[in-house]
Amino acid sequence: MTTPRRPRTTTRDPEELAGRLTAWLDARLPGAKAVGVTVPASNGMSSETLMFGIEHPEPPVRSCVLRLAADPAAYTVFPVYDMARQYRTLRLVAEHTDVPVPRVLWLEEDPAPLGAPFFVMERVEGRVPPDVMPYTYEGNWLHAASDAQRDRLEAATIGLLARLHDQVPVAEAEFLAPPGPGDALRRHFTAQRAYYAWVVDGLPRSPLIEAAFDRLEELWPSDPGPPVLSWGDARIGNVLYDGFEPAAVLDWEMAATAPREVDLGWTVYLHRFFQDLTAASGQRGLPDFLRRDRVEARYAELTGHTPRDMDFHTLYAALRHAIVMLRVAHRQVHFGEIAVPPDPDTLILHHGSLRAMVQGGYRY
User: Whole-structure pTM over 0.90, yes or no?
Assistant: First the structure.
């Protein structure tokens, strides 16, 4: 595997957005002006991020972050961007837990002001383990840290998941439940099938992804367990750290109700995704960091719940990630950044590890 160049993340003009943002802000805080509007280099490929300051005699905060639904004309990664749902999730987590999340300030559901719905939250200072180049490569703050410092970060991050799962009353999170019949895991799984069908609509299907769906049916847990509020994109690249302690948990657009292990599998596999890339490039990476056995043990100690069916849940994470990667690759094709290969499975960056997991040959 090789690390490709980063795909484009926006088709919008930041200067135009800045002017429209100031007009919107003035209507809510008369005399206020949005200043220093920037699009961070780490902007994702789903919801877009703007950072700005508020110039006003009595601003509610000085520095803000705006999350804007993706431009529907820009070959979006997900079919729906429900900003009200994300806003409500952040408020729910802030109300019921001590998990650090940014304070949300405003929700705008009318697409007219900026071209799509958005919400604004207070900016939290901190540093994020990078995705490009991945933190498993040399040359970044987490790779350069000591083993003890990374262990501290790992323990604190698993603690976030433990507290999130234990502290949010699941009845308060029912608005996040995927639709359809069956228990929470079955509904979550069915939603992923629907997402895959949307991704390949009118395009070549992925035999590998479909084999992974079939293998998961064979591994289906006899007792998936009760649902909790699942963060959805539970990885260290979505956490701002103050030193090696979490300062803010970000990116809640994949939140749902699901068994605890859905988040744990995602945390474990998303690290292995980067670690496998790094090892394939000839570097050692961070093979002892976020190991599955350590994640399971830390989580069990904190919650009293021993993670189960983790072969299923790590494969499920790899499958979910594959669907996202396939959509991202199709998006790159759409913008002329890559060519269409003869084998559609090779559009999935981690097709080798996913195939090994489906065949039972992947080793943690």
Answer: yes
